[in-house]
Structure to design on (261 residues):
């Protein structure tokens, strides 16, 4: 694969609305009725970095405009007003859009220098929430929509007592089952056959009840996959099999893109 940086980059920049005034990144894109639709991850602040999801459209995949002037998904909608919603991945199966997302119950504090480890911005939730360590773990789920603007919660796709993100649906059923990629952080060690967080695959008849995941791919390159790997985009069917773009994270937390077939 030969990949070149587009001369029009950056194609989407922060600003215009308060909820995206600081940064835009990690988008999902889908083509529908001849248009490109982008679901952007945004932030209105770095301290804390509370994230929202916005919706843009484009006729050519380069020049984007907002469909609505408000976020289409917020952590508040998911019950966590002090958290942030991250890493959208979108597919359409039959007449329904399915959006994978990661939800952090608390936002993080980031600093423009990039030095050091981000600090948590730990809020105080009512009714005892936050008293247990697992309350602060990243959980993943699925939202559904018919129009890309109005979204409804469908399910959590992973257990709530582990960090599990990079959950990505295949864009079609395989052998009558829905298929999901995962990246459980705690599935490491001798019992799991990998020393670093890896990519796993699981199946479901109904999108709600998921089978035990099976290991799919693990980090093999010490240089650019030093810390972990995880899925990046929905798999693409080709005449040679399923193409999966994934990311590797090196020891300096630099992300790079790889490909699996």
């Amino acid at each position: 694969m030969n990949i070149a940086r587009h001369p029009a980059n950056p194609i989407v920049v922060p600003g215009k609305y308060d909820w995206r005034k600081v940064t835009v990144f990690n988008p999902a894109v889908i083509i529908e009725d001849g248009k490109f639709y982008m679901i952007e991850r945004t932030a209105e602040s770095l301290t804390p970095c509370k994230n929202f999801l916005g919706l843009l459209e484009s006729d050519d995949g380069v020049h984007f405009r907002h469909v609505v002037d408000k976020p289409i998904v917020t952590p508040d909608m998911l019950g966590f007003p002090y958290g942030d919603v991250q890493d959208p991945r979108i597919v359409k199966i039959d007449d329904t859009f399915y959006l994978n997302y990661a939800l952090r119950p608390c936002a993080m504090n980031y600093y423009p220098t990039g030095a050091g480890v981000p600090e948590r911005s730990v809020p105080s939730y009512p009714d005892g929430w936050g008293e247990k360590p697992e309350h602060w773990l990243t959980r993943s789920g699925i939202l559904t929509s018919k129009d890309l603007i109005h979204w409804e919660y469908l399910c959590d796709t992973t257990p709530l007592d582990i960090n599990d993100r990079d959950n990505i649906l295949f864009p079609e059923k395989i052998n009558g089952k829905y298929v999901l990629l995962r990246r459980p952080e705690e599935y490491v060690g001798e019992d799991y056959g990998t020393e670093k967080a890896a990519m796993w695959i699981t199946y479901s008849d109904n999108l709600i009840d998921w089978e035990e995941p099976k290991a799919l791919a693990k980090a093999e390159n010490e240089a650019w996959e030093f810390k972990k790997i995880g899925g990046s985009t929905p798999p693409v069917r080709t005449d040679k099999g399923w193409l999966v773009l994934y990311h590797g994270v090196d020891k300096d937390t630099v992300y790079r893109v790889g490909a699996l077939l």
Summary: The CA atoms of residues 9 and 62 lie 8 Å apart. The chain has a mean pLDDT of 92. DSSP finds no helices and 18 strands in the chain. The first strand starts at residue 23 and ends at 32.
